[in-house]
């Protein structure tokens, strides 16, 4: 099962730092985590969502060993 890691505001909104998921595409995962964690739904569209460290589209299949990172926008420079 893919593992999702939440960082900063995404971690606070999800109420956890990691979780295992069963969704098979990134798009399905986005919709499911937004439904399971309503506070995350408000910031998820602004987050970078990386699979294996790379930005990919929602049609990307997820495998059992994939690592998905949810990174909210960071301020600073």
Report on this structure.
It is a single chain. The protein has helices at 8-14, 26-36, 38-41, and strands spanning 3-6, 18-20, 48-51, 54-55, 67-71. It is an alpha+beta fold and 77 residues long. Strands 2-1-5-3-4 form a five-stranded mixed β-sheet. The protein is globular and about 25 Å long. The N and C termini lie far apart (35 Å).
List keywords for this structure.
5-stranded mixed sheet, 77 residues, alpha+beta, globular
Outline:
The protein has helices spanning 8-14, 26-36, 38-41, and strands at 3-6, 18-20, 48-51, 54-55, 67-71. It has 77 residues and is of the alpha+beta class.
List the helices and strands and how they pair.
Elements (H helix, E strand, L loop, with lengths): L2 E4 L1 H7 L3 E3 L5 H11 L1 H4 L6 E4 L2 E2 L11 E5 L6
Parallel strand pairs: 1-5
Antiparallel strand pairs: 1-2, 3-4, 3-5
Task: Count the beta strands.
Answer: 5
The sequence of SSEs as H and E is: EHEHHEEE
Rg, Cα atoms, Å: 11 Å
Let me know the average pLDDT: 94
Helix fraction, binned, reads: 25-40%
Question: What quaternary form is this?
Answer: single chain
* Model regions low in confidence, pLDDT < 50 over at least 5 residues: none
Summed up, the helix count is 3
Shape: globular
Biggest sheet, spatial arrangement of strands: 2-1-5-3-4
Cα distance, first to last residue?
35 Å
The biggest sheet, with number of strands, parallel, antiparallel or mixed sense and barrel status, is:
5 strands, mixed
* Secondary-structure content class: alpha+beta
| Range of strand content | 15-25%
């Amino acid at each position: 099962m893919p593992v999702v890691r939440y960082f900063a505001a995404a971690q606070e909104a999800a109420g956890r730092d990691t979780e295992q998921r069963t969704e098979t595409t990134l798009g399905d995962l986005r919709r499911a985590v937004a439904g399971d964690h309503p506070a995350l739904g408000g910031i998820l569209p602004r987050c970078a969502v990386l699979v294996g460290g790379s930005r990919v589209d929602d049609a990307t299949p997820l495998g059992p060993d994939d690592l998905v990172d949810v990174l909210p926008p960071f301020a600073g420079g």
